[in-house]
Amino acid sequence: MRLDHVELFHLSMRLKAPFETSFGVESDRECVIVKVAGEGLVGWGECVAGQFPGYSYETAGTAWHMLKDFLIPASLADPLEDVAQMRRRIAHLRGHPMARAGLEMALWDLWGKAERKSLAELLGGQRRRVPVGVSVGVQGSTAALLATVLGYIEAGYARVKLKIKPGCDLGPARAVRGSFPELPLQVDGNSAYSLADAPIFRGMDDLGLLMIEQPLADDDLLDHVRLQAGLRTPICLDESIRSARIARQALEAAACRIINIKAGRVGGLAEAVAIHDLCREAGAPVWCGGMLETGIGRASNLALASLPGFTLPGDISASERYYAADIAEPVFKLNPDSTIDVPSGPGLGVQVIETALERVTLRRERIRVN
Length: 370
Ligand code: OSB
Ligand code: MG
Prior knowledge:
By secondary structure, the chain is α/β, with parallel strands linked by helices. The protein contains 13 helices and 15 strands. Magnesium ion (MG) binds at residues 188, 190, 213-214, 238, 260, 289.
């Protein structure tokens, strides 16, 4: 395939409600959309790097720089045989997984369209619908938290994740468990704690949680080993798992028992599939994490989550949970059994609404590659 040009769009989209985590509050979600064009086809990708470096060091600005100045020129100037060849051409460049993953997603979409295969098919997906849950940001009060959780249960979500932060963790988790004794429930600390906080997590051990996600620092596998050794509740790692290699080491060391897979965090879908494969081999359950994606990234997450090792509900909620108006159609709806259908059309299986995209674009740039 000979590529012709790439277009980058830096977006800012108003969330229906601000999303608070241990690293900050987001009211408007930023990302970079990548559009690749060649041989009469276009492919779309979403780079999940946001406005500020809270979840990871990447931002929409650093991703833009990496894409424009390094990743696109290094990988697309010569004709491409497949997506794997693009990955090999940028393998010598260090870091910036979200920037890589955004470009890779656009190429997967393009390849799917060229071969008339869905992304799920290309990746080895087996399910037509996937179980999903909802991630609930830190709320201002326990009453607000209980009302928000109840609203999502009434909307049909069968699994709830609570964001926690220091000072707002065990109390809210106990309150939700008290009101909803049977609810499949988990918490996510987004790296905000240290081993000195172990008593908080031991307190959570009696709440019957599905897992405790990323309590400690992203570069601290060893203290996760120590924390996990003293807990019955499985630890799930998110930020720590940056590659298949780290995933293998985390499981071998028993730093966690579950892994959250996000293609953006690990440099793309191919690496995400590699992590899925090794976790399946090791008997460790995985699930698909989310980064408040638009319909483009959501379609990609659904395709990934259709692989057989994704046995736990993903953070892949319905489009209307995030945005009043999305930039792609059709929008994703929650089925009554707390699943969402995996797109079956070619590539990502969604159409980008370019007028809607333009309305939320802060800047755009076209980069010729041929
Ligand atoms: O840690 O899983 C996380 C959103 C932004 C950054 C990090 C995380 C999240 C979520 C939201 O939990 C999941 C979703 O997209 O619904
Ligand atoms: Mg997380």
